[in-house]
Each structure stands twice: as structure tokens, then as C-alpha cells.
Amino acid sequence: MPIIDGYFQKLIEAGGSDLHLTQGQPPKVRVHGSIKPISEEILTESVMETMMREICEPRAWERYREKGDLDFAYEMDIDSRFRCNYLRQISGYGAVFRIIPTKIATLEQLGVPPIIKEFGHMRSGLVLVTGPTGSGKSTTLAALIDYINTNFNRHIITIEEPIEFVHRNKRSIITQREVPIQTPTFSDGLRAALREDADIVLVREMRDHETISLALTAAETGLLVFGTLHTNNARKTCDRIVDVFPADQQSQVRTMLAASLRGVVAQLLVKKSDGKGRAAVNEIMVSTPAVGAIIREGATQKLYDVIIGGKAQGMQFMDEAIWTKLRDGYITPMEAYMKAIDKNRFKAFLPPEDAGVAVAGGDTAK
Q: Which is it for strands 69-77 and 173-178: parallel, antiparallel or unpaired?
């Protein structure tokens, strides 16, 4: 049994989400958003190298030694799978591991807005699931893909780095490809998907000009494309897509985005007030003629009003979702304040002992 499996067992027993191993530091785990050490042992260079090499393919290890970064997935047993990130840092070796649930939760179990299910019924267009690292984007997308897999006959291609949730064929055929093992890059995998009789393509990272351009083209030519971005709300998501392109192409890109975009799901995780885990809060934007016109104009600041006024279409502004959680007692006023966009709206609910901390921390915390 690999030595590192002992640390994975401690992560599972602690109910944590991430394991942090850093040369020169004790091992630490993240539990409900907070990081804490799990022993006083200081990890040495030789121990780190032994643990990291024994679960890594030799070819991948050489790539890590050459480049200083590596992403892959490791399956400890049938019930325990981890996303692994190797890095070099000032003290030497470093690695972060995130536990991947082997059982895919349903959209209902995740408690996300019901409108998200409707994106699975679409036959073409672009749907973006966004949020910071660790906000549960992968979990929500896995639940949506599983919903499609359960209810529709489709060919679904996923392009991921690494593959996290492993899907079994139900009614659909699912082809999962890992970057750089089964396909060199996201753009290569997306370009190939256009020739592979796909109905749906999931592009886990839309982070460069070529991948975003191909995704827009694929959505325009009849595929349903799901993608992720590290943006916090619908407006920033639209701006990020356009800003990737040179200035002389942005007008054309806005027209393509307006035509192909079907929706944006922005997601954050908030700590529950009872201390028992975290819950998702979502901003939802559904494409309408008004949304399309705003994107074509480049006046994305107007999207706020459309989202606020679009409740009948299933739209939801992020601060409204946070307010609902606060009103129903699911989260504390401090957590609502820290995650909100308009912090002044929530400042009045802070108890006196937290109000000083908020002021000291400034209004930039998210």
C-alpha cells in the first residue's frame, strides 16, 4: 500500500475536502473551508519524493520534474478517488489533493436552482458554469451530465484535466478524454469533437483564445457546449469571453456570443451556520432577446437589471441567493457579508463583534 494512502485515510476520517503536503511543513487538511494540521510531523524532501513518486506514472513524474507542475487523478480504492496537483515551491516539493466523490450527486441533492436542469434539455448553444477554484463547479456539471445521461440518448464528450468524476454509460454514450494523456490540449480535444459525432461537449477549462473561439463555433454549428470559467458573476463572464480576443475581433465575438449563449450559472460555496459543511449559492442568467441585445451592444452593466427582473424565467442575482440563505438561517451574517457583491446590503446584519472585523478587512473580501 502506498505510504500516502495513510494521509488520504486521515483526510476521509476528518470529513475534509483537500490534503496539503508541503516539504518542510506538517501535513494539513481543509475541513469545511478551514485548513488545520493533522500531525506535528515535518515532511522531509525524501519522504515527499517517495510519496509523490509512488502514485505517479514515470512519464508524468518526468514531466513534473521538467515543468514544476502536474495534474492527474489517483484512485486509492473503489470508493476513494483524488484530484492531484504537484507543484514546486520555495521549500521544495508540494502537493495538493482534492477528494472526488465516486458517487455523483443529483441536482436535487446539491440543492441548486431547478432551472439548471433545463440546460440539460437544450440541443445546442453555450452554457457556462463559473466560479472561483473550489466552488463546486465540477460537482454541479457532473450532476448535470448525469441527468442527461439518465434521461436522454446523446453522445457526450468530456475534455478534462484531470478526469474527476467517472461516468458510466446509461442512456447516453459518454467519452471522457484527459488532457494531456488522451488529447494534447483542450483546443485539440474540442476540435476533434467536431468530427466525432458529438451532441454535447464539456470543456472543463476555457482559458485561452483558441479554446473559447472553438467553443463558440461549436455552439453555433449545433453542439451543446458546457464550459467553465473562473469568474464570479454573469457580467464578468461575458466580459471575460470577449476580452480574450484582440480589439478588432471583439465586435464579431459579441455577436457570436449573443447568438450562442444559452445561460450562465455562477456558483459560490458558503459555510452553513450549523458548521455542518457548505452549501452552493448561484447566480443564474438565462439568455433572452434582451440579454442578446445587451451582449451585442457591449453594455454588460445592464445585465444586472435584466437578471433582477428575470425571476419568471428562472434568473437569480447572486446577492439575492445569499440573502435567501441568510433569511432562512442557513448562513451567518458574517458569511453573507464576506461572499456578497454589494457588502453594504449585509453590513447592517453583522453583530457588533463582527462589524469591526469587516471594517478592518475592507470591502474587498469575497
A: unpaired
Please count the other Cβ atoms lying within 10 Å of the Cβ belonging to residue 24: 15
Q: Are 7 and 1 in contact (CB under 8 A)?
A: no
Cα atoms found within 13 Å of the Cα of residue 308, Cβ hemisphere only: 6
Whether 366 maps to a domain, the answer reads no
The whole-model pTM stands at: 0.85
Distance (Å) of CA 43 to CA 1, 22, 203, 219 = 19, 7, 36, 48
Q: What does the alpha-carbon distance between residue 234 and residue 303 come to, in Å, rounded to a whole number? A: 8
CB-based contact 228:137 (threshold 8 Å): yes
Query: Which of 85, 100, 115 is the endpoint of a domain?
Result: 100
Other beta carbons within 10 Å of 347: 17
Task: Give pLDDT tens digits for 51-97.
Answer: 999 999 998 899 999 999 999 999 998 889 999 999 999 999 999 99
Torsion of CA 351, 356, 362, 366, to 10 degrees: -30
Residues 6+ positions from 303 with CB-CB distance below 8 Å: 234, 235, 238, 285, 291, 294
The amino acid that residue 180 corresponds to is: P
Q: pLDDT tens for residues 272-312?
A: 999 888 889 999 999 999 999 999 999 999 999 999 999 99
Does residue 225 share a domain with residue 260? Answer: yes
Residue span of the structural domain in which 55 resides: 5-100
